[in-house]
Design brief:
With 119 residues, this protein is mostly helical. The protein has helices spanning 13-21, 28-42, 49-63, 72-90, and strands at 5-6, 9-10.
Length: 119
Amino acid sequence: MEYGGYSDYPIRHDKIEAIITNAPKDDLLDIAAYYLKNIILLQPFADANHRTALNAVELFLIKNGLQFDYTAEESEILQETIYRIRSRIYGTYEEGPVSHLFEVKNENAYPGISAVNSG
């Protein structure tokens, strides 16, 4: 079944296209982090953008031979952390403009969220 969005908040195909067009091409973890951040930040769907982003990244990593395991509790902690960081950096939980895709990469912009290599 295709998800069509709510009638008062349709799927933002322009944002999805911008996310895809501007995605990094080289490092798998950079690509995964990019999609996680920008699906959440730009909110192209009426609902469930955090879950969609996390599931998309999980599928992307698995398809590229990387295991991505997390518990429901870890997922909730990630979501709460992202809410706090997003509020602190952007001053809102609302959808962001496409211009966020062109921000300078800053590895210190998201303290408290780090990649863990479980080897």
